[in-house]
Amino acid sequence: MKKQFISGFLLTLLLSGSAGATEYIYRDLMANTLPAHCDVENKAKQAASKPYTVDRYSKRFCQTQGYGWHLDAIKTAGNTSCSPCGENGGKQKCFQEDVVVTCKRIKPGTVGMLPGKG
Fold first, then answer.
1. Residue 91: which residues within 8 A CB-CB, separation 6 or more?
2. The total number of structural domains that make up the chain
């Protein structure tokens, strides 16, 4: 009798999943990346529009919103914009303009932060 009860109880625990009641708060942001060092126009545009660069800055955009905010999705990578360097005639510095990202954060009170709720 005890073996059947214990095995049934363990089986029930293993098969039951979590409720998944975590709720998120979403926020869309639009920002510009910082210009890199001066370089020839083609290389400067490539460096500014690299997926690694856009991902890195997108994560930073969300982290500047405060504790708990992180990147959910990159909606648009923006447009590459360049400006000439001061004394270097043929060199330019480029950056991504109007990068749109979606940030998310766990909604307070949905993951057992308040005892006796949920």
1. 38, 39, 40, 41, 44, 84, 85
2. 1
Q: Distance between CA 64 and CA 56 in Å, rounded?
A: 13
Question: Is 85 contained in some domain?
Answer: yes
Q: Do the domain assignments include residue 56? A: yes
Phi, psi (degrees; rounded to nearest 5) at 99 = -80, 125
What are the pLDDT digits (tens) for 33-87?
999 888 898 999 999 999 999 999 999 999 999 999 999 999 999 999 999 987 7
Residue 60 domain boundaries: 33-107
Does 44 fall in a domain?
Answer: yes
pLDDT of residue 85: 86
Closest CA to 104 of 3, 35, 8, 29: 29
Mean pLDDT across 1-24: 68
Is the whole model's pTM more than 0.85, yes or no?
A: no
Place of tokens 């998944």: 20
Does 77 map to a domain? yes
